Amino acid sequence: MSTQPLLTLKDISKKFQIKGSKNSIRAVDGVSLSINPGETLGIVGESGSGKSTLGRLALRLIEPTTGEIEFDGKKISALGSTELRHARREMQMIFQDPFASLDPRMNVESIIREPLDIHNIGTKSERSELVRKTITQVGMTEDALTRFPHEFSGGQRQRISIARAIITRPKLIVADEPVSALDASIQSQILNLLLELRRELNLTYVFISHDLSVIEHIADKVAVMYLGKIVEFASVEEIFSNPQHPYTKALISAVPQINPEHRTDRVVLTGDIPSPSSQPSGCHFHPRCPIAQQQCTDVEPVLRNINSVTHQVSCHLATGGDLR
Amino acid sequence: MKIYILRRLIQSFFILIGVTFITFLLLYILPADPARQIAGRSATPEAVANIRAQLGLDQPLFVQYWHYLINLFQGDFGRSYLQKTDVAELIQSRLTPTLILMFSAIFIELLFGLAAGIYSATKRGKTGDKSIMVLSFIGVSSPQFIAAILVLYIFAVKLHWFPIGGYGTFAHLVLPALTLGILGSGWYSRVMRSSMIDILRQDYIRTARAKGARENRVIFVHAFRNAVLPIVAMIGIDIGIFMSGIVVVESVFGWPGIGQLAWQAIQRVDIPIIMGVTLVSAIAIVIGNLVADLLAPFVDPRIKNS
């Protein structure tokens, strides 16, 4: 572990004030993470778990309430607005909805070229050269450049988004559910494109998804989020072969298996994710937990190492073995 | 595209015919008697009847309307009862001042309305936004004749900054254009504000910020260009509202446009002029809407396909 992490989040929290009320929502609650260069970190969780907020916090697209963000040796959380804009060159984001994330008034060339214009990269001819190169890199043809976003399908639009994100040669890309708006057949194409680009451009990804099979395909490490907190963190192999948190187990058992012999008993969670404005006592997961005990309602568990330093779980009952 | 324009023009033709018929009907139902107006108060009933027969006003409604239409298709708008001049000529001589006033007022509406709307949207919920929304509400709800008289009283009568009325120099234009423009900008600021707020919530605005774009670029390049679409359609509709306001404002400021002409004609039941002005206003509204619709694809590339 001698390599310096590319991105480090230290005790990041984000509270959203509810209008006209004293209550606030703790969308992200004291999360610490680090990602090494070249790694892909998958963040999974239900909707409302705070995973998208965490992704945006990582790039400071929204301001954290508390905590520090360090990127490539720079304290992102302390940068002024001009420095932050310059830093955006190195860290880009791909959004979930390819139908909403592209400016409908701009043609594809302007969309992809805009980051170069903003950051003043290259001469005019170099820019258009780079735009043409990038559009082919994401598997599209140059004639797409003069057209407008609405003329493309969801998969093609997501390719345009990816081209826009990689054109400044960023080190980090936060992909917020980049394939969940797409058809299954297109999903794998986009995932493979992202994997290919990671190799070619030496990218580091933060990959946010609610779909564990997508995470399994792309991630090296996985953080499972529940109600704004990380409840389990491990390598992708560990998470899938030896999940420790009952919530992780439930998520994994919900992944459809093609081979019936591999099917395990489905852990069905009852109820919905509680509102982040009125969090349960003790372990936030206890009202839905199939194995909850008295201490779970009283004492809030903390993230602790289990088995190895790279496997962390926040559950009183996790033992490292299979406790199902 | 050509077929679309042709279809719209044919539609417009029937709309205009409808407008002439409704106006004609309303003037026919009106208890005021144009023959009595022309003849004067002391005229004998015979003289009045004579004038009525001369103008064809004793004929049934549909015969009168038919005659009007036939003449209209030959380019004849009729003659003013009182001024004895060609209505077409009268309107023509009044059109330039009205167009000057209209474009100045629309310019002011857009300038103030869009600026206030953008400002409000970016400062949503703050004091600046709230004050602008109160002001725009006053603008939207103020009757033009009261505002016009107030503006005239303060800036011309009391402060002597501008002439009290008339036409000819730029100074004459300022007060009527400001009255129409500032009242009208209330609508634009409200529409622009809600449109901007809607657009600023869009993902592509977040994308622009994630690209590292300056806030000015985010607002004016990405948000503004998308938010302005409803405004373009609104200008088309606005010309209609404008045509009714111009009657009041032109009369108050003595601006020799077709609004003032209409006001004078209404007072004297000068039917050919009222018909002519109504028709010209209707044509302006129809053209305004057509142009707004034709411009829409240039403002929003998504419209081209449909």
TrEMBL record, chain A:
It comes from freshwater metagenome. Signal peptide: none annotated. The keyword Glycoprotein does not apply. Pfam families: ABC_tran (PF00005), oligo_HPY (PF08352). The keyword Membrane does not apply. PANTHER family: TRANSPORT ATP-BINDING PROTEIN. This is Unannotated protein. GO terms for molecular function: ATP binding; ATP hydrolysis activity. InterPro entries: AAA+_ATPase, ABC_transp_ATP-bind, ABC_transporter-like_ATP-bd, ABC_transporter-like_CS, Oligopep_ABC_C, P-loop_NTPase. Residues 7-252 form the ABC transporter domain. Keywords: ATP-binding, Nucleotide-binding, Transport. GO terms for biological process: peptide transport; transmembrane transport.
TrEMBL record, chain B:
It is found in: Cell membrane. Residues 95-296 form the ABC transmembrane type-1 domain. PROSITE patterns: ABC_TM1. GO terms for biological process: transmembrane transport. InterPro entries: BPD_transp_1_N, MetI-like, MetI-like_sf. CDD domains: TM_PBP2. It is a multi-pass membrane protein. Keywords: Cell membrane, Membrane, Transmembrane, Transmembrane helix, Transport. The chain crosses the membrane at residues 12-30, 99-120, 132-155, 167-188, 227-253, 273-296. Its main location: membrane. GO terms for cellular component: plasma membrane. PANTHER family: DIPEPTIDE TRANSPORT SYSTEM PERMEASE PROTEIN DPPB-RELATED (PTHR43163:SF6). This is Unannotated protein.
